[in-house]
Design brief:
The protein has helices spanning 17-30, 44-48, 57-66, 85-92, 150-166, 184-196, 209-218, 230-243, 281-293, 297-313, 319-322, 330-339, 388-399, 445-456; strands spanning 6-11, 35-39, 68-71, 97-103, 118-124, 134-138, 141-144, 171-176, 203-208, 225-228, 251-255, 260-264, 373-383, 404-411, 414-417, 429-436, 460-470, 473-474. By secondary structure, it is of the alpha/beta class. α1 packs across α9 (281-293), α1 (17-30) packs parallel to α12 and α10 (297-313) packs across α12 (330-339). The protein binds NADP nicotinamide-adenine-dinucleotide phosphate.
């Protein structure tokens, strides 16, 4: 006989993770969903075994096979040591869309109660600063590459619009810092504005991310779906969680075309680990999202309703809501939800969910093919312990015997040579912009290498960026104060 049981990889995780996951699994079993859980591990216990990624091979195999994961939070050392196993999992399986709903819960008092908050942050999940490409440029200057691709933007923007349609939502706002980071954040804005035209049934607009944060605090009910870059999304989705009662209530889905990982927004909250006091709602609601993803719409509604009845009636309230001295234990809270299966809340209406259509985007690494491109010059980053004037004079002299001229030097983005009106507090990290004397030419790699060789004889350089012109437009930004 064929076994139709759905197999799902379950990762209990660290800290409070196992308690939350155990609660969700008990409720799913009580709701009668036939899931076979394949338990695997990642995070702290795996780091301790000496596996630097925090994700062992049998976990990867299990996820590859089952394609659906329910996951507890994983601990990451802050500021040192191993990379986040969470981010590794998201990236390994290209779960590029992070869906973070925040909806007012009946019976969870907040300063926003009654305002009708019901929004979803759709956060790009694998690019941006989370590409995790960092280098010390000099002993005192660190750099992190913010990588944003047109392909990544298209995937997340299409997912946001498709998600809005799947949930019957009316609008999608795109939140970026495109006013400052014109190439990276600007690429999301540009992509959004182009793709929005394909979804005329959904209202769309752009908002600068800092104003978005401000608006979320002032008038959160104006938002329906917000699509944004990874770092922005990380921060504003914690704000939106806070608006509706805190991290204990914030579920999330990491969606890709092949694999989906469901987890809470919160982390391992180590101070509460093993105490049977935490709120498992975020993981339970993540499991509800998972059930919808695998097509178990009735079971998802059954559990969502039971959670809402429990919260609404207020007979079992966890410590994060009423204080840990009088809160209901995690196990009793779980038992109460199970007892409430089959009941409907008075103040919560489940949405009419449809399966989400994930975008079908080409796997070709080349996603944009311009009609023309050329290299106008190069930014060469030099370590220099003295002032701008002495470096500028030295580089001017070196450039005399090359095909380039030194256009300017900036320090932390502000032009300092030739001297302007700015008085930045300089560090030993200088961006030296060289452009071809022949303004119509295309700089060859050999020309740039020749220039680098000349500079190397006198100065220490860290890295080089070509100055690209793509379809006649500069593919780089100007320094502050550069003409
Ligand atoms: P955190 O674990 O989310 O905890 C922050 C605070 O949020 C807790 O101290 C607690 O607030 C509240 N909280 C979180 N979950 C709760 C729950 N289920 N019930 C009740 N209250 C809850 O954040 P963190 O302390 O910054 O991070 C701890 C570790 O988790 C770090 O190693 C971090 O890297 C990791 N982390 C993992 C993930 C993930 O796996 N996806 C996400 C974020 C962080 P009060 O103190 O006010 O009671």
């Amino acid at each position: 006989m064929q076994n139709n049981k759905r197999v799902v990889t379950v990762i209990p995780g660290d800290g409070i993770g196992p308690e939350c996951i155990n609660s969700a699994m008990q409720i799913i079993a009580a709701a009668g969903v036939d899931i076979e859980w394949e338990e695997r591990h990642a995070g702290a216990s795996v780091f301790k075994q000496g596996i630097a990624s925090g994700v062992p091979a049998d976990t990867i195999e299990s996820i590859k096979k089952n394609r659906v994961v329910l996951k507890g939070p994983l601990e990451t050392p802050v500021g040192f040591g191993q990379k986040s196993a969470n981010v590794t999992l998201r990236k390994l399986f290209e779960t590029y869309a992070n869906i973070r709903p925040a909806r007012e819960f009946p019976g969870v008092p907040t300063p926003y109660t009654g305002r009708g908050i019901d929004l979803v942050v759709v956060r790009e999940n694998v690019e941006d600063l989370y590409a995790g490409i960092e280098h010390m440029q000099t002993p005192g200057v660190a750099q992190c590459l913010k990588l944003i691709s047109r392909k990544g933007c298209e995937k997340i923007v299409r997912t946001a619009f498709e998600f809005a349609r799947a949930e019957g939502r009316k609008s999608v706002a795109c939140a970026t810092k495109a006013n400052i980071m014109k190439n990276t954040e600007g690429l999301l804005k540009k992509t959004f504005e182009e793709i929005a035209k394909e979804y005329p049934d959904i209202e769309s607009w752009h908002v600068i991310i800092d104003n978005c944060a401000h608006q979320l605090v002032k008038k959160p009910e104006q938002y329906d779906v917000i699509v944004t870059t990874n770092m922005n999304g990380d921060i504003i989705s914690d704000i939106t969680s806070g608006l509706v009662g805190g991290l204990g209530f914030a579920p999330t889905a990491n969606l890709g075309n092949d694999v989906a990982i469901f987890e809470a927004v919160h982390g391992s909250a180590p101070k509460y680990a093993g105490k049977d006091v935490i709120n498992p709602t975020a993981v339970i609601l993540s499991a509800v999202m998972m059930l919808r993803y695998i097509g178990e719409f009735d079971a998802a509604a059954l559990i969502e309703n039971a959670v809402m009845v429990t919260i609404e009636e207020g007979k079992a309230q966890t410590g994060d809501i009423v204080g840990y001295d009088k809160g209901t234990s995690t196990s009793v809270f779980t038992k109460t939800i199970i007892e409430n299966l089959g009941r409907k809340p008075t103040k919560w209406q489940a949405r009419n969910y449809q399966p989400i259509k994930m975008p079908n985007i080409s796997g070709n690494p080349v996603f944009v093919t311009p009609e023309s491109r050329r290299v106008l010059g190069a930014d060469i980053f030099v370590e220099w312990p003295q002032d701008a004037e002495s470096l500028g004079q030295s580089l001017d002299k070196i450039a005399e015997t090359s095909d380039f001229r030194l256009k300017m030097i900036s320090n932390r983005g502000t032009k300092v040579y030739p001297a302007g009106d700015a008085f930045p507090d300089c560090v030993d990290h200088w961006r030296c912009r060289f452009v071809l004397r022949d303004t119509k030419a295309d700089a060859s790699p050999e020309q740039i290498i020749e220039l680098l060789t000349k500079i190397s004889a006198v100065h220490q350089w860290m890295h080089v960026e070509k100055l690209l012109e793509i379809d006649g437009e500069p593919g780089y930004t100007m320094a502050q104060g550069e003409d």
